[in-house]
Design goal:
The protein is an alpha+beta fold. It contains 3 helices and 6 strands, in the order E-H-H-E-E-E-E-E-H. The longest helix is centred in the N-terminal third of the chain and has 18 residues. 25% of the residues are buried.
């Protein structure tokens, strides 16, 4: 399925909160990462496969926007989707957003992701399994 949307549900808990009683900015990044690990693992590219193949995703840059507070016991859904474009031959783009139970968007995140050869310690072009997992089949060369 080209360009699938992945959803991950989460309940905001007390340990996610800062002294102001809402989710701290750094915690947003942790929750977004949790959602990414969930969908790559469901696509058979989790930690086990990364350790076996010595190839895995690395964040290159990000743009995080806050739109509404997340507070204790808020139920959220994180929606993740790869963009149907590559920045260059090494870099894929992924959009994520946190949606509150009432439908209000709490936060958006756009990241640039590269695929690293963990032995050579350098970026490589996305492999076919990674392109398929992100729904970017149109970039698979015949």
């Amino acid at each position: 399925m080209a360009n699938p949307i992945y959803e991950y549900e989460k309940l905001i808990l007390e340990h996610h909160l800062d002294t102001f009683g809402h989710v701290n900015n750094a915690m947003y990044l942790s929750i977004y990462e949790e959602a990414r690990w969930d969908f790559i693992t469901k696509n058979n590219l989790g930690l086990k496969e990364i350790l076996e193949t010595k190839v895995g995703p690395v964040l290159l840059d990000l743009n995080l926007t806050f739109k509404a507070e997340l507070k204790n016991r808020d139920k959220i859904k994180i929606v993740s989707q790869a963009r149907p474009e590559l920045r260059n031959k090494y870099v894929m783009l992924l959009d994520q957003k946190m949606i509150k139970e009432d439908g209000k968007i709490a936060s958006t995140l756009t990241i640039s992701v590269g695929l690293m050869d963990l032995n050579a310690r350098k970026l490589i072009s996305p492999t076919i399994p990674w392109l398929r997992a992100l729904g970017l089949e149109e970039f698979i060369e015949p």
